[in-house]
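Contributing new records

If you add data, match the layout below exactly. Sequence lines come first and carry their own label; structure lines follow with theirs. Keep one chain per record. Anything else will be rejected by the validation script.
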Amino acid sequence: MSRPMKRPVRIAVTGAAGNIGKALLSQIGAGSLFGPDQPVILQLIELPQAIDQLRGAAMELEDCAFPLVHSITLHTDSATGFADAHYAFLIGAMPRKQGMERADLLQANAEIFSLQGRMINDHANPDVRVLVVGNPCNTNAMIASRNAPDLCPTQFTAMSRLDHNRMAGILANRIGYNPANLRKLIVWGNHSATMVPDIDHGNCFGQPLTELVDDKWFKDVFVEKIQKRGAEIIQTCGHSSTLSAARSAVDHMNSWANGTRADDYASMGVISDGSYGITKGIHFSFPVHCNYGRYQIVQGLQLNPWLQDMIKRTEDELLKERELVQDLLPKETEARHNNFSRDYSNGREQTSGEHFLSAQKISEHE
């Protein structure tokens, strides 16, 4: 006997006609995001000049005949595109062009994500979960969150799951195991060349990864390989990561909505609450546990001096990025973000003003 279908959830995707967007949509339609019994309403958002490409992507989705795709709507207006959305994937962003300084890229994307933050604040479901994929994703997530005064900062996240998955795939190949057997990998910091891969707390079938991986190879080869993997892919095939980025976006949102294994971590770019001494208010990749549609930063991990130094460098980079976009960060949300804190006492995490429904309850809303 087949299981009854749930009520559809609304998923908004910006940059939906791009390569990552189309790869993501095919996975959502196939049920990789929420499983085989969760219908979806796809709200696809693009720039006006890309509307024909968006129509083509929608036609292909229709031709796939996915049973879970309840309906598809196309939008060039973010207000209608984000209307009542339960989940939002922000993929569309200005790519870095030849000769463009990082500061110019940050400024251009800051304007895009400040507008999207306001549109999500005003039109999305109050319990929306937002994943920023478009780079620089950590700072873009902070900008969008700062421009959404009615939403909790924890509703906006940045994608470091791509780096996490890269770690799993490359390490598993190195030590001769399946990536699914690796536990408690961590990516700290910014999704950039300063990100910090960490295997100190990881294991494979209970054996510490530090016993399976040579420390010199890890520090001299592996860390740089993860930090520069995106650039390596561009150099090799002429375009940025597509399939892996889409897969990682699905993994990120699936972990957030449906939970992580009790014996594992996920890496997510989330607003810092001061954990591990990281400046409050920036979006920083931490190890997290997810349950009932919420995430919680893993507490109490011991960090060796090498890790502490690397983490400080990636934090400094994010603080510099925040300075470059300061003029687009509304003053009305400054205090709430820069003084953000969570109470982890008694093993229970609480956040003032946080108002998430469980994934099951969200699915009951139109």
